[in-house]
Amino acid sequence: MKPTSLSLLDRLRAADPDASDWDRLHDVYLPLLRRWLGRVPGLGAEADDLAQEVFAVVAREIPRFDRRREGSFRAWLRCVAVNRVRTYQKRRRRFPIAGLDPSAGFLESLADPDGELAREWDREHDQFVFQKLLGIVRPDFAAATWEAFRRFALEGRPAAEVAAGLGQTENAVLQAKSRILRRLRAEAGDFLG
């Protein structure tokens, strides 16, 4: 297991971030951004290019990102995505005709932090990133430890039942959950919540 005292986001904000940290951020977020940008009416195939533009903005601006509350990063990323779509649309249409933008309502709803679409972004973000983080930390644990965690923490089975089914003690099941959650928190940092 690779211990880490800084979250991925903190490492990226450092003066000279490691390329593997950027790769990890890219691997975690690119599919989510592609999916969301693919929902923007009228955007079509440009969603992939815009997802890369979002990453360019993140790379440039992340040293100045300031986490002020739970969920700050996901809200910031959502705003960056909305703004990149708006900038793209302005570039694409030199003289936009008012009222003919099929994505206007979608973008306004996504930009509104209290809107249903923003809440859907938050829910989907957390689920998506959590699943990606599970995949990242999974190789760091023995199969028996992971299985105890999966059954107890993810499926919600009672510790005694999991212990009996795996031939472990209840304490081993509880420790598996604790160790993996600690590792997930260290890796996730500001991404979840």
TrEMBL record:
InterPro entries: RNA_pol_sigma-70-like (IPR039425), RNA_pol_sigma-70_dom (IPR014284), RNA_pol_sigma70_r2 (IPR007627), RNA_pol_sigma_r2 (IPR013325). Keywords: DNA-binding, Sigma factor, Transcription, Transcription regulation. It holds the Pfam family Sigma70_r2. Residues 28-94 form the RNA polymerase sigma-70 region domain. PANTHER family: RNA POLYMERASE ECF-TYPE SIGMA FACTO, RNA POLYMERASE SIGMA FACTOR HI_1459-RELATED. This is Sigma-70 family RNA polymerase sigma factor.
